[in-house]
Amino acid sequence: MYEDLLQLDTIRINFSAGGMHIINIVLAFVMFGVALGIQPSMFKEVFKKPKSVVVGLVSQLVLLPALTFLLIVVFNQYITPMVAMGMILVAACPGGNISNFMSQLSKANTELSVTLTAITTSLSTVLTPANFALWGGLYVNFVNPEAGSALRELHIDIYQMFETVFLLLGVPLLIGILVSHYLPKVA
After folding, report:
1. Are 139 and 88 spatial neighbours (Cβ–Cβ below 8 Å)?
2. How far is CA 50 from CA 47, 64, 73, 123, in A?
3. Domain regions of the chain by residue span
4. Around Cβ 98, how many Cβ atoms within 10 Å?
5. What is the C-alpha to C-alpha distance for residues 136 and 147, in angstroms, rounded to an integer?
């Protein structure tokens, strides 16, 4: 099994600009669909009781990477350094529009999900590289010192991140809420 995972190390995924545009359009459309079921007044409840936001942020920004690190330690002999670093990277990344869709589909608190997505994505320019450096560094220093080449510095462009948040979260959310309010039969 370990040998099978080693084959993953040679795979490189490169999205073309056109492919990324299509993915972004699909994600924006998903967010628009989620927004059709949201009322602005629902966000007031999220901010009136910030405990859920704080618990969600701590869970996503601290507990998820820590639990992922523990899983890597437990299964270290079965996974490659690149798989371990990939797991850490995924755990360090913010949630996205699909999590909002899944929250709506499961009849969970969609407004909380959207709020957490907006906050964690906005903070990700600093926190994703910091979390990756922290947990990846712990992995290299204490679990697998030979994996040093798998630990790379991350840089996230702040302008591009806020543009993405605005275009993939803000605009579809606003349009969806407006359509739902002014054209309820269309929604």
Report:
1. yes
2. 5, 20, 33, 17
3. 2-7+17-182
4. 14
5. 9
Q: Is the dihedral of CA 118, 121, 125, 129 positive or negative?
A: positive
| DSSP conformation letters of 48-94 | HSTHHHHHHHHIIIIIHHHHHHHHHHHTGGGS-HHHHHHHHHHHHSP
**Does residue 179 contact residue 38 with C-beta atoms inside 8 Å?**
no
Half-sphere exposure for 130 (CA within 13 Å, toward CB): 8
According to DSSP H, which parts of the chain are helical? 2-6, 17-35, 40-48, 51-58, 64-74, 81-92, 97-105, 110-138, 158-165, 171-182
CA–CA distance, 115 with 59 (Å, rounded to integer) = 14
Tokens of 149: 């080449």
pLDDT tens digits, residue range 20-77? 888 888 989 999 999 998 888 888 888 888 999 999 999 999 999 999 999 999 999 9
Closest alpha carbon to 144 in 87, 96, 55, 80 = 80
Look at residues 102, 93, 95, 90 and name the one whose alpha carbon lies nearest to residue 30: 102
Token pair recorded at residue 123: 């903070």
This prediction has a pTM of: 0.83
